[in-house]
Amino acid sequence: MCGRYASTLPAEALARIFATAPAGREIPPRWNVAPGQEAPVVRRHPTGGARRLDLLRWGLVPHWTADPKTGRHPINARAETAPTAPMFRDAFARRRCLVPAAAFYEWQAPPAGATGKPPSKLPPKLPWAIARADGAPLAFAGLWEGWRGPDGAVLRSFVILTTPANAAIAPIHERMPAILEPEAWPLWLGETEGDATGLLRPSAAPLRLWRVSTAVNSPAHDGAALLDAV
Q: Which of 32, 33, 54, 192 is found 20 to 30 A from 10 (Cα to Cα)?
């Protein structure tokens, strides 16, 4: 899964890398993006078709939701089932997006039985940071939705798709975000025809993994030091 990530590039750099229209607003760097917070997302405009860079809320609120304050707002969706799952299939068909990230975090559970202690007294999970080895930004496959309230206000939200972990991440966690290479972006965004489900497989991109401080465990913590190796 992907439960926390860093998104640190300024809007101008994101617009250049992802070939979007200017964001039109400042996008502050975040080293600990958490569910329920806003983060930059690249998507095609539903009517004009141009790529846009917008801030959307992490945690999908389907357009048919009665009340966004209640119900389930998933932050991740399994790539294997999202194309047909009732909560995601409409967005998968019409509203796919890219979620830029500098790195993401994953937590490694202590080995079962390694301490001889009951589960309630095991040491905390160990956080790792994962980024591309070449330093390029990550692009997660995502889905977005727009929910319109009775007053006409629109809440736009997104979910990140996940795949089985590749060989690099498997020792830490069984799942990972679906990472898309630049050549896959047009198909994923619906700019070209093809089977988008074929893009959703464990990433073959070389990745760099390093241990980071447990300070990242709290969404109240932010700052570049969260990516320092320990």
A: 192
What's at 93, amino acid-wise? A
User: What distance in Å separates the CA atoms of residue 226 and residue 39, rounded to the nearest whole number?
Assistant: 18
Structure tokens at 196: 């988008």
Dihedral sign for Cα 51, 53, 55, 58, please: positive
Picking from 32-36, 116-120, 205-209, which range would have the lowest pLDDT averaged per residue?
116-120
E-only strand ranges, 102-195: 103-108, 126-132, 138-148, 154-164, 175-177
Residue 131, φ and ψ in degrees, nearest 5: -145, 170
Domain at 202, CATH number: 3.90.1680.10
The reply to whether the predicted model has a pTM over 0.90 is yes
pLDDT digits (tens, 9 = 90+) for 35-55: 999 999 999 988 888 999 999
Secondary structure letter of residue 229 according to DSSP: B
Active site residues: 2, 106
Q: Which domain holds residue 105?
A: 5-227
Which residues are within 8 A (CB) of 162 and not within 5 positions of it... i.e. 6 or more apart? 1, 2, 76, 77, 78, 79, 175, 176, 177, 178
pLDDT averaged over every residue in the chain: 92
Predicted pLDDT at 13:
95
- What's the domain count of the chain? 1
